[in-house]
Specification:
Length: about 180
């Protein structure tokens, strides 16, 4: 009995160590101060905030150039992303057949795509990826960061994008997220 308990404890510690070592995001972090441009906020984010967007809440309906760019960013041959309340791998013990990411909302304009999604791992985190779209070419990442919160309601998502709260530094995420949800 003691050997079985010890074995179980070793397995649990090994799983915890594997989760702790695992890189939970393939996206580099930005450093943004909402509401104003600064040295830490690229000027392109001002143009991103000013664009007119169509919202998408299902990964399958996102335009092809954006889906291809997302798959490339995540190191996948085709985009594997759940939508809305669909199940996904929210923990570090992966369930075969489920994607690691779940789309919250995507805002797409002819010039930019702002994709807000959750990533599973040791803990679920919300992230934002901004892509620049060019006609006839593949979309390219211009900025990425953690999000202040999960903006899943279209009105709060649009408000967070316009105000810059969606494009925020992780150190300010909790404070700003509470005021924008």
């Amino acid at each position: 009995m003691a050997k079985a308990a010890l074995r179980l404890l070793v397995v649990l510690f090994a799983c915890a160590a594997a989760c702790a070592r695992r890189e939970h995001s393939v996206l580099p972090r930005g450093n943004v101060i909402p509401g104003r441009a600064s040295e830490s906020q690229p000027p392109i984010l001002e143009r991103v905030r000013a664009d007119q967007y169509t919202l998408f809440d299902r990964a399958a309906t996102i335009p092809d150039d954006v889906r291809v760019a997302l798959a490339r960013e995540f190191g996948e041959s085709t985009l594997a992303m759940a939508s809305g309340v669909e199940p996904f791998n929210g923990g570090c013990l992966m369930q075969p057949g489920l994607p690691r990411r779940r789309l919250l909302l995507a805002a797409i304009s002819p010039r930019f795509a702002v994709v807000h999604f959750e990533v599973g791992g040791f803990a679920v985190s919300q992230q934002v990826l901004v892509l620049r779209r060019t006609e006839g070419a593949s979309a390219e990442r211009v900025w990425s960061n953690v999000a202040a919160t999960a903006w899943a309601a279209p009105q709060s998502f649009r408000a967070a994008l316009r105000s810059g709260a969606l494009l925020v530094d992780a150190s300010k995420a909790l404070l700003i997220g509470r005021t924008c949800t």
